[in-house]
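REVIEWER CHECKLIST
Item 1: Sequence provided? yes
Item 2: Single chain? yes
Item 3: Sequence as submitted:
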Amino acid sequence: MSIWLIEPRDPLIVRDGRPFGPNPGARAATLPFPLPSTIVGGLRHKAGIDDTGAFDRTAIARVLGLTLRGPLLAELNEETGAIKQFLFPAPADALVLDPLDSDKRPEGEQPHGEVHVRVQRLAPRTLSGAPKTNQPDGLDLIGPPKRVPNKVSSKAPRFWHEQAFMAWLTAPAEDATGPLRELGLGAMESDARTHVSVQSETQTAREGALFQTQGLEFTWRDREAAKHDQFLTRRLALAAAFEKETQPYTPAPFTGGIAPLGGERRLMRWSIVDSSLPKPPDGLFDVLIAARRARVILLTPALFGLAGADHPGKHAAYRPPLQWIRGGVVATLKAAAVPRAQVVSGWDMNADNGLGKSRGKPKRTRRLAPVGAVYFIEWSTNADVLAWLNATWMQNVSEDEQDQRDGFGLAAIGVWPQSDEEQP
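Item 4: Structure as written out by the authors:
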């Protein structure tokens, strides 16, 4: 197997929806992480290049059939550039809290500059009494195992280390305190640059025409260690599988090298490495088949149904169907832990703009189920659980087939442990 690595040479700009025009003081802000549509658009463009180096518009239908799985954040070996580990978005069923003083190790036993956090597992809980809730669709309530006075940590990592994430899939602790450094990394660094518009006639600055761009840096620095005169960095990149009919695909005109991506055409180093997206931990599927219940965690945003009068019969966009069919097998959705929605738009290059030319037009804005969203599911006693798991692990689970090909809804699966505790 092979996957693509995209390592930005310059800060990567993946624009949000705010206008950015030729106005003094304009700012081009960036999203905190690129959407799959940005990455698949860059790869499909390279798959549609003709012999002259220009994009062949007759290839649009062909390249739209190519599939992306990703992107995931990857840490690279500083010397060889090989993938050292994958970094996964923080799961929404992990509540990261600041520890109380009693949770911390004694001062003499705590490494210099080490920060600890407390992690509680959120799960469907049974409330005492006969409570009434406004939960939609009859889904169960999500809660921690017990109430604690700790505050939500402002240092909660946005990306989890591969070892910590896989442990969360296979054996999530109800309530545990440990070093933040072992859990994951914070948000990616951003780089803001101020520019000036230049007059072509005189090659001098245009009066008052300053503007600013903000991009993502892919060299991570440990800010906590820096406070104690330690300089620790990590080399990061984007990793994604690009496929044609489930097989790895390399565009004939482009097999790697330096090429632009995103806003301002910032330069990236594109390369193909002999690797694959993570496989399930040993024995995980056996445990899930025996338990007949699981958690599905989104690693890229997903596009599910749309609610509203304009879309009769469609369900809410934050979740999959209550009867979720994968691989021809039905799983029943019991609960969901979903952070704030993301949104996506884009540009449809093949659409008629109404002027008789296929110059394209903006795509409609849609709500996404965000990365880290967790869905709790169960299977009936006669369901082929293995077929459901094989159709879902590291596959795109969005409902529309084209959204799946565009990379939306990459999923991982973990255990849903039994818990006898009730939320007071």
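Item 5: Key structural point noted by reviewer: The chain has eight helices and 27 strands.
Item 6: Recommendation: ____
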